[in-house]
Amino acid sequence: MFAADARQLISPFGTLGNLTYYRTCWTAKTDRDAFGSRAWFWSSIQVNTPEGKVSVPFYVAVQ
How many domains does the chain have? Predict the structure, then answer.
């Protein structure tokens, strides 16, 4: 976000301490060789919030 000075950042970022966050744990299962080295996949989850649904994309790389 562009701001001409620090005071302009107080309104949009002043409530960062009130944010709620969640930690999730995922397990992916597939056939024996489907996740080879350097494979990757992506998807998204839908999160219901008081303001409506939010799509949260994620990307996973297999090392």
Answer: 1
Residue 55 placed within a domain: yes
Q: Does any domain span residue 15?
A: no
Element holding 41 (H helix, E strand): strand 40-49
Residue 12's pLDDT band, with cuts at 50, 70 and 90, is confident
pLDDT score of 1 more than 70: no
Evaluate whether 57 touches 43 at the Cβ level (below 8 Å): yes
- Which of 55, 54, 33 is closest to 42 using CA atoms? 55
Domain that holds residue 47: 35-63
pLDDT band at 18 (very low <50, low <70, confident <90, very high): confident
